[in-house]
Amino acid sequence: MGRLQRYLRRLTEKEWNTLHQAAQRELHGVKMLTLLQRLRKTGIPQTLTPSEKELAKRLERWIWKRAYIAEQEAHPIYLPAPAEWQNKGALLYHKKGLSDEGLALLKQIPQHPSQHLATLSLKLRLQLERGSNREAYATLKQIERFAKNLRTSVERSQLQLIIDRLLREYGGSYTEIGQRFLRRLERHPYWKQPLSSAGEELSADVNLHVIYALARGRPEEAHQICLYAEVRDHPSILLNRWMCSLLLRHTTQKYLLYGSLFSQNLSEYQKAILLNRLLLTILLYGPPQFVEDRLPLLEKWYVHSVSLPENQYVWAQLLWLVGRKAEAASTLEALLARVKKKPFAYLQGALILLLVYTDAHAWHKAVRHLRHFLPWLHKAERVIASAAILSELIRRLYEARLRPQVLSSVAESWQRHLTAYPTERYFWDITLLPDWIASQLSHRSLYAYRLAQAKNHPTDLDTLLDQAAKGFT
Fold first, then answer.
1. Long-range contact list for 92-98, CB < 8 A, 24+ apart?
2. Model pTM score
């Protein structure tokens, strides 16, 4: 299915009706209108003739043009002009010989990188065309400084992607390959540079230092970095700080400090990350009955949020905690299909799925899953340090049919491994695996074990959910 067909199929009925009516007014030619309707109404991928492909390109360009015009028309003229208007005005004046007036419009340089560079480039062009070489040289120096800052920004993004790969692929379970990544990162000159002076650049610098500390298994250090006075209330910093609190298992009262996030103007992606932090908090601190009572509300927020694999993983564990094991298993099965290329995420999902099958006494599914999972662990030994030991421990448990004595020995071996890999330990500590191990050793179900851990009603979690209701509804 082509991109235009996929786009048209995803429009709501109201959006489609508006688009279709505009097409009838503005587009000429029966073939184009017929193709538009066909792509909208047909769910089967369409094979287009060469002439239809050309018509589809024209339809796409018309949709883009219409969306751009609508966006510009929606901007009121009593508000400051967007950068595109300002630059166009400067060009209009310059073409009529009013270069001073045009350049006066370009004194205010937009902050957005692409608009910033476009405005500076236009300013340089006008100055060169009017022969203002001294002013042009000063503008050229501005462009040079901007390019230098842009290079720093690109370098920071590159480092962030490397660290993200470390966290997603290795999850702190570093083989020699992962250790080499870390050693290479440690030698990078970026860490010796001072933080940016202010604004988004500063928050991006702080966030990079935070995730670097987490990649090295230092959540205490990461949490302290999040408290940097200049940016501690920035949404992205607060979201990372919340994760640090989860890793450090702060008291529930501490999480009320993050309630301001629910009243901030966040992007849909940031809201999904915020939901992840909330779901994790409920998973780690909520007694089963409390979670069960709040699950319909949490489900409403979960279903309407941007779909993140991380949220799917936490949601499956919440279902498992309250005894909805079949739903938890199906959620994890769907998750594994999404994270095939993210080894550690796949490892975590596959292991928890095996435990859910075992807990539900779904032995046929457990054995079938095990026959796929064990060979996968063998292949993953090159990139995940815990793959080999997990393969050995799972085999021992399977052969012993979870006998308490063997389970105790396996738990000790697993704990020794996590002590040697502290970064990985933090990634498992925010799952139900530690609770499942403790429940098995105490001869209780996961539900009963978590119920026994609850000392009183979690009023702080109630308050946190009340705060969340203001942001998610």
1. 94/126, 94/129, 94/130
2. 0.78
